[in-house]
Amino acid sequence: MTRRLQGKRVIFTGGVTNIGREVVELFQAEGARMVVADIDRDAGRALAEALGDGVNFVHVDVTDEDSVRRMIEAGVETLGGLDVLCQNAGAQRSGKVTEFAAEDWDMLFRVNARAHFFGAKYAVPHLRKAGKGAIVNTSSLAGQRGGGGMTAYSATKGAVIAFSTALAIELAPDNIRVNTICPGWVDTPFNKPAIDFMGGRGNQDDIVARTVPLGRQAHPSEMAPLFVYLASDESSYMTAQAITIDGGVYN
Ligand SMILES: NC(=O)c1ccc[n+]([C@@H]2O[C@H](COP(=O)([O-])OP(=O)(O)OC[C@H]3O[C@@H](n4cnc5c(N)ncnc54)[C@H](O)[C@@H]3O)[C@@H](O)[C@H]2O)c1
């Protein structure tokens, strides 16, 4: 059977833990060759060692333009070109708007939103050289629908959707597709700030049971097949979409 990402050359940010790691493992199984980039050096090196063949690690701080430029250059050199850019690195903070620190607001925008601009800026020339390409950006249900305590995070994730949609239109003539994945509750430590804001895991479980039609959070592995679909040629006629994967909340 043909593997769905056979020979695809992929740069993947935020790929060493949780959702990203599940995606990277499925990408590898589907035949992709990858440069995984993250701020967490130890986890990145451990990932490359554990997965081996076709999975390399480079350090990046996505808040730093030069670091992103170097990540793309190193990735293209290692892979011999570029077919797919996945931008999954992210950060979360929660708090009431009246108590929220400007530094946290700015940090979230740098990690969650501005980084997507840097990635596109430096990756697009290489995707153009390949004659076609796919960019898959990670947003959130929070970017489509509000939640108390999430004003800053929601604003950054809404920005990712708006940016990606505009980028998709700009790049459509180059046959470079841009789509956005919007996960709902995925059970990872990433949500600790939101869980603390809600008053603890017990309260979060109650909220999930009441508001998620499927009645539970996702396991990170449940996100991975959608990434494969959007990165592969199977989605060749799909661009400028924000696709929600949230157990039915956004309907
Ligand atoms: N867990 C959820 O419920 C959920 C829901 C919706 C969207 N998301 C999004 O999914 C993505 C992955 O989330 P996760 O739950 O797997 O969390 P995670 O914390 O495991 O993944 C985030 C990754 O980004 C990396 N990162 C953070 N700052 C960085 C920086 N400055 N430079 C480079 N890398 C950096 C982290 O080291 C980590 O590997 C995030 O973009 C998040 O916003 C998660």
Write the layout of secondary structure elements.
Layout: E1 9-13, H1 18-29, E2 33-38, H2 41-51, E3 55-59, H3 65-79, E4 84-87, H4 102-130, E5 133-138, H5 151-171, E6 176-183, H6 192-198, H7 201-211, H8 224-231, E7 242-245
Parallel strand pairs: 1-2, 1-4, 2-3, 4-5, 5-6, 6-7
Residues 13-14, 16-20, 38-40, 60-63, 88-91, 111, 138, 140, 183, 185-186, 188, 190-191 line the site of nicotinamide-adenine-dinucleotide.
Q: How would you concisely characterize the structure shown here?
A:
It contains 8 helices and 7 strands.
Oligomer: single chain
Beta-strand content: 15-25%
Give me the CATH fold name. Rossmann fold
CATH architecture: 3-Layer(aba) Sandwich
Largest sheet: 7 strands, parallel
Poorly predicted ranges (pLDDT <50, ≥5 residues)? none
**Radius of gyration over all CA atoms, rounded:** 17 Å
Q: Which whole number gives the mean pLDDT? A: 97
Q: What hetero molecules are bound to the protein chains? A: nicotinamide-adenine-dinucleotide
| CATH superfamily placement | NAD(P)-binding Rossmann-like Domain
Order of helical and strand elements: EHEHEHEHEHEHHHE
Any idea how many domains? Answer: 1
Number of strands: 7
Which strand order do you get reading across the main beta sheet?
Answer: 3-2-1-4-5-6-7
Q: Quickly count the helices.
A: 8
Give an overview of the whole structure.
It is built from eight helices and seven strands. Strands 3-2-1-4-5-6-7 form a seven-stranded parallel β-sheet, sandwiched between helices. Helix content is 45%, strand content 15%. The N and C termini lie far apart (35 Å). α1 (18-29) crosses α8, α3 packs parallel to α4 (102-130) and α4 runs parallel beside α5. The protein has 251 residues and is of the alpha/beta class. β4 (84-87), α4 (102-130) and β5 form a beta-alpha-beta unit. The longest helix is centred in the middle third of the chain and has 29 residues, at 102-130. The model has no long low-confidence stretch (mean pLDDT 97). The protein is globular. It has one domain (9-233): NAD(P)-binding Rossmann-like Domain (Rossmann fold, 3-Layer(aba) Sandwich), CATH 3.40.50.720. 42% of the residues are buried. Nicotinamide-adenine-dinucleotide (NAD) binds next to α1.
